[in-house]
Amino acid sequence: MTTWTPNLDPQLPRYLAIAQAIAADLESGRLSPGDKLPTHRELAWQLGVTVGTVTRAYQEAERRGLVSGEVGRGSFLRDPLAGRRAAVTAGERGPLDLQGAVPPRVCNLADFDQALMRLMADPQRLDHLDYPPVAGLPEHRDMARSWLRRAGVDVATSQVALTAGAQHGLLAILGTVARAGETLLVEPLTYPTVQPIARQLGLRLEPLRADDEGILPDSLDHAVRNGPGRILYLVPTLHNPTSIVLSDARRRAIAAIAQAQNLTIVEDDIFRLLLSEAPPTLQSLAPERSWYISSLSKTVAPGLRIGFVAAPPKQVENLLRTMFATGGRAVGITAHIAQGWIETGVAQRILGNIRTELESRRAAVLPTLEGLQVQCTPGSPFAWVTLPDFWRPIEFVSAALAMGIKLSPGDAFAVDRSVPCNGMRLCFGGAPSLPLLVQACEQLARLAAEEPVAHYQAMA
Fold it and tell me: Is the model's pTM score more than 0.85?
């Protein structure tokens, strides 16, 4: 039997700290594959914990592929690299990613192969290796326009530009309409990448007040009348990270304020098509002052890296100058694939399959989180989970990572420290299978119910 005294991380629950110590000592060489671990009772006595805590720790280590238990003989260490190779073979790459708001992979090889064969059959296919126009080729802008119409955005092709994803579209829009030193009005919890974009452009973020239905029109009106803000950025449909859908009445109130106060609206609507029905876009309510962003990343496949921007009338040329300066544009080959999928109905079928798979995952996951406060609008690819008061989001996310699960802490979405954010975002699409997702969520629910050791130390 191996003589082993683990060094426990005080920030983690004891059972997780023991499992993490096993992993660390195997990696450092302090422990070796084939070593027999102390019995549950012996290690419990040595560490001053219950036998149940050690049992739970060994079970967690076994789940990670670090330990194998043999009835009547004890617990033996396994080769962690072999476990990692097995995990890759099973479709997992490192920690289980419940952090990224990506769609579940429902595309099949036949669809992808057909797209590649269509590319091979194009006699002008070498042209896709050239620089495309900044706004995209005319046929690709037509394709983007047809996809935007599915969201209720009906603009002329001349108002449409293709970008290298929605994030690039947002950077280009803000680089076009905002000047350094200006204030950008945002939701109190917002898309995290807005913050580095704002710093890069020299913009100040001002959070508006919001409730369970989204931003409050009175807060917007007050901010515009009493402050320097003249640009509003928001995610009104399946808001990131709370999944809230802004109501029809609030959208109309916001559009009316924007028109009365000469406010520019940047509407990030990349999740919209995950809903079968949604309220009208702000772009349709105030088209003369709205910039609309969509993409295929959340509704078809993130790797295509194609975003669609609908600009207000006579504004697209200003956008294209910014896009040219930043060097970003859609790649011709992926635009060609997207065009084929949209024109043949494959993209719409993939979208339908993503909706169905997400619904199955939500239905399976939400019961595992019973006892926690969860906000998850039907159609959403993620849930906003409010944590018990004894957990800080960053501590919980660190503990989850030690279990092999990646999450996003609420702090990442908060515009400033005045915004309450005692939660975390849990995404459904990144798990390679439904059983793995359910298993992970069951573990997270157990973790959330257990107070961290650091909590007690802080009160000592």
Answer: no
Pairing state of beta strands 290-295 and 96-97?
A: unpaired
CATH of the domain at 328: 3.40.640.10
Same domain, 230 and 263: yes
Pull the structure tokens for residue 233: 């950025």
Q: Which two tokens stand for residue 182?
A: 């200006």
Whether 289 and 261 have beta carbons less than 8 Å apart is answered as no
Question: For residues 232 and 236, what is the distance between their CA atoms, to the nearest angstrom?
Answer: 11
- Residues 338 and 227 occupy one common structural domain: yes
Q: What is the CATH number of the domain that holds 87?
A: 1.10.10.10
What ranges make up the beta strands (E) of 98-230? 160-163, 183-186, 204-207, 210-211, 214-215
pLDDT tens-digit profile of 157-198?
A: 999 999 999 999 999 999 999 999 999 999 999 999 999 999
The boundaries of the domain holding residue 283 are 109-345
Q: Map tokens 């983007």 to a residue.
A: 144
**What does the pLDDT look like over 99-143, one tens digit per residue?**
999 999 988 888 888 888 888 888 888 888 888 899 999 999 999
Asked if residue 194 and residue 128 are part of one domain, the reply reads yes
CA–CA separation, 43 and 251 (whole Å): 60
Which of 8, 10, 27, 28 has its CA nearest to residue 18?
A: 8
Number of domains in the chain: 3
